[in-house]
Amino acid sequence: GDSVTQMEGPVTLSEEAFLTINCTYTATGYPSLFWYVQYPGEGLQLLLKATKADDKGSNKGFEATYRKETTSFHLEKGSVQVSDSAVYFCALSKGPDSSYKLIFGSGTRLLVRP
Amino acid sequence: NAGVTQTPKFQVLKTGQSMTLQCAQDMNHEYMSWYRQDPGMGLRLIHYSVGAGITDQGEVPNGYNVSRSTTEDFPLRLLSAAPSQTSVYFCASSSYGQTLMNTEAFFGQGTRLTVV
Lengths: 114, 116
Fold this sequence. Notes:
The complex is a heterodimer. In chain A, 0% of the residues lie in helices and 49% in strands. Chain A contains no helices and twelve strands. In chain A, the strands form three sheets. In chain A, strands 2, 5, 6, 10, 11 and 12 form a six-stranded mixed beta sheet that branches. In chain A, strands 3-9-8-7 form a four-stranded antiparallel beta sheet, with no helix packed on it. The N and C termini of chain A lie far apart (41 Å). Chain B is built from no helices and eleven strands. Chain B has strands spanning 4-7, 10-13, 19-25, 31-37, 43-51, 54-57, 64-66, 76-78, 87-94, 106-107, 111-115. The radius of gyration of chain B is 14 Å and the shape is globular. The chains are: A mainly beta, B mainly beta. At the A-B interface, strand 5 and strand 6 of A face strand 4, strand 5, strand 9 and strand 10 of B.
């Protein structure tokens, strides 16, 4: 079946360090890919998305590129801040009529130290 | 801008008790879903609805019931709570995206449920 695999956390970085959180997926067809972020005590918020191969999603300094050849959607940020500390979830959906059944990875906790 | 509203935020139940988790959205979305979040397992889909009067099972439906009598509301019922249902529950809503441009799911703030 369809699935999403994320790197295990926690990831601990110093402020202004470079961030990569790996995400790979297994799915038939052409899924849409998402990164959601969960700040402490809050629900999930969409961070960025990409709907077709080679698309790059970006928001708040974060970027991820939909790589169909490697079935990956790695999250990157050039310089992290303490306020980026959160749990990051990679997810996929199978089309415009499937946004009600996202498939999530297990989440990666990021801790940024001053 | 209320978005998706879940109540209660916290709940402690005894084994065997029943309760209903409430979820309401004010964005006129067709789709609504319930997920549970457990450590190391991400979010897993419990039940979903593609419109009023239509519901279906997700990945982990056992022990839960849902109904969708209106577009706005999608309550989740625990019929006889078990310790294995201790989790954080999230409700989400979204709309059909013909162009893939509006397939974002909006989440509530979650309900932390403990069953003792």
